[in-house]
Write a structure and sequence with these properties.
Distance between the termini: 11 Å
Structural class: mainly alpha
Largest sheet: 2 strands, antiparallel
Radius of gyration: 22 Å
Shape: globular
Number of domains: 1
Helix content: 55-70%
Number of strands: 4
Order of helices and strands: HHHEEHHHHHHHHHHEE
Strand order of the largest sheet: 1-2
Strand content: under 5%
Number of helices: 13
């Protein structure tokens, strides 16, 4: 373990190894903590704080985070996609993967605003967040089942991964023990149901596409997840810009409704908050985190179940830490008792994921799909049994 951690913090790791997985998870964890703290600061209504609305913060932070991602992928030239083949449409030749990566970007453009929109509706945010988090875990497991049936995924979902799903859902659903009467009334709210359904469908399609890309790379073709990210982000940013222009110039606000999204969205531009630039800069950690989030979802050689759990559990732990930091620095509410109980269940789920990861890393090494790091404690035996150095 000590040697592994030394590699994680000091070495450039190989693609698909456990050490690379830990590096991505730790980076996502750090950026997610910052992402969780920022809105608590900017939307704090106490004296001395910016007191932005949800829509204002969404507009300003999303603006720069999207621009940040797009700028980096252009500078780094990640858009030079390494394709399995070209396709020609109307005389224009382009990688055939664009046919599904671009729609994945459109789905990303749906996921980002729908997450914020849930806060603006007259519903229980707690229950909405439970459904949103649990849905990703369930969707990831369903996608594995679907792609196994389709012959796209040839790997087995380990028993330990299924057990981790159970504990993760228990951790996410812990707050349901504290649901109040009326918290589920949003099922009668057409706007809430539409937004939540859009979020789940868009995320489901996106995760399916990520795993379709991951599981259909032919031997000898580079696993270009950087190219995937670049094309997806360019597509998402273009979609969000077009949507923003449509809201600003073509939609009519309901000025009588203080929570009207269109009115608040247009006002964020016409009457910019004095701290809009600070909020925009605060969106950079979200933009950085997007890299690690996608790379975790698409991690080489892992099932959607495993990758989805690593992504969601990392964000859940970071969210609890962010809540604790906000409590200590901003005198906000501390993490609730159910948050700590949920954290215990999360660590149990992580234990089972760890067992699964040891088995998977050895499986991939024996199949020559990945190159294990040198000087790590775990040594994979030819017969499939894990051996450990004393």
């Amino acid at each position: 373990m000590i040697r592994m951690l030394k590699n994680v913090f000091t070495q450039k790791t190989h693609d698909g190894t456990t050490e690379r997985l830990l590096q991505l998870a730790l980076a996502y964890f750090a950026t997610y903590i910052l992402t969780g703290i920022a809105p608590k600061y900017f939307m704090n209504t106490a004296p001395g704080y910016p007191a932005m609305s949800d829509v204002q913060y969404m507009v300003y932070s999303t603006l720069l985070s999207s621009l940040f991602c797009v700028t980096l992928v252009i500078i780094w030239k990640w858009y030079k996609f390494q394709s399995q083949g070209k396709i020609t449409v109307l005389g224009l030749s382009f990688p055939k993967e664009f046919l599904y990566i671009i729609p994945s970007g459109v789905c990303t453009a749906v996921v980002i605003p729908t997450t914020t929109l849930m806060y603006l509706l007259p519903i229980s945010v707690m229950v909405a967040m439970i459904i949103m988090r649990a849905s990703i875990i369930v969707i990831s497991r369903l996608i594995d089942s679907i792609q196994i049936r389709q012959g796209i995924l040839t790997k087995t979902v380990y028993m330990e991964e299924n057990v981790a799903v159970v504990f993760a859902l228990a951790a996410v659903g812990m707050k349901l023990c504290y649901v109040k009467p009326g918290d589920f009334d949003f099922v009668h709210n057409a706007a809430a149901v539409t937004i939540l359904t859009s979020y789940i469908i868009a995320y489901g399609i996106r995760i399916y596409i990520m795993n379709y890309f991951k599981n259909t790379r032919t031997k000898g073709v580079p696993y270009d997840n950087k190219g995937f990210f670049a094309v997806e982000q360019l597509s998402a940013s273009t979609t969000m810009i077009l949507a923003a222009l449509a809201v600003v110039y073509f939609m009519t606000p309901d000025l009588a409704n203080p929570k009207d999204f269109v009115a608040n969205f247009q006002d964020a531009f016409s009457n910019a908050h004095k701290d809009w630039l600070k909020a925009a800069l605060a969106g950079i950690p979200y933009g950085i985190g997007a890299f690690f989030s996608v790379f975790l979802f698409m991690f080489k050689g892992r099932t959607a179940t495993f990758a989805g759990l690593v992504n969601r559990l990392t964000s859940l732990i970071a969210g609890t830490i962010a809540t604790l930091i906000v409590f200590l620095l901003m005198a906000a509410k501390p993490p609730a008792r159910e948050d700590w109980l949920g954290l215990i269940l999360i660590f149990i789920a992580i234990y089972f994921l760890g067992v699964s990861e040891k088995k998977r890393a050895c499986e991939l090494a024996r199949a020559h799909e990945i190159e294990l790091e040198k000087d790590t404690e775990a040594v994979c035996a030819p017969d499939g049994e894990d051996r450990h150095k004393p």
